[in-house]
Design goal:
The structure is a single chain. With 108 residues, this protein is α+β, with helices and mostly antiparallel strands. It has one domain: Trna Endonuclease, Chain: A, domain 1. The chain is 38% helix and 18% strand. The chain has three helices and four strands. Strands 1-2-3-4 form a four-stranded mixed sheet. It is globular, with a radius of gyration of 14 Å. It starts with 6 loop residues before the first helix and ends with a helix.
Length: 108
């Protein structure tokens, strides 16, 4: 499977913020592009290109394909997240940190 043009930029944003990143994009079959480890938790992330105002229709580069939607819907773990920008990558890490804090309070 090919990588979206922003794949490396998104990976770099995650790594610069202290996350571990495993690229899964070569697996295909709807599997998300990245496995992210941060703050004691993991999330699957699909990298997509940012939507442009000039986009008249959804494309596999900007939206989930049918195969990807099916895979995401059948996954029994956390729902994979879609990331288009480095800022969205930072928000994912915030979600992961908050999730870990909440689960650590439950086990206390």
């Amino acid at each position: 499977m090919s990588k979206d043009a922003n794949h490396e930029t998104i990976c770099r944003a995650f790594r610069q913020a202290g996350a571990d990143v495993v690229s899964l994009h070569t697996l295909g079959s709807g599997v998300p592009d990245l496995l992210i480890g941060f703050a004691g938790t993991e999330r699957l992330v699909e990298v997509k290109l940012p939507k442009r105002k000039s986009d008249q229709k959804e494309t596999p580069r900007t939206h989930l394909s049918r195969v990807q939607r099916n895979w995401h819907n059948s996954w029994k773990g956390h729902t994979p997240l879609v990331v288009r920008t480095p800022e969205e990558a930072e928000r994912v890490l915030d979600i992961m940190a908050e999730s870990q804090q909440e689960s650590s309070h439950v086990s206390e």
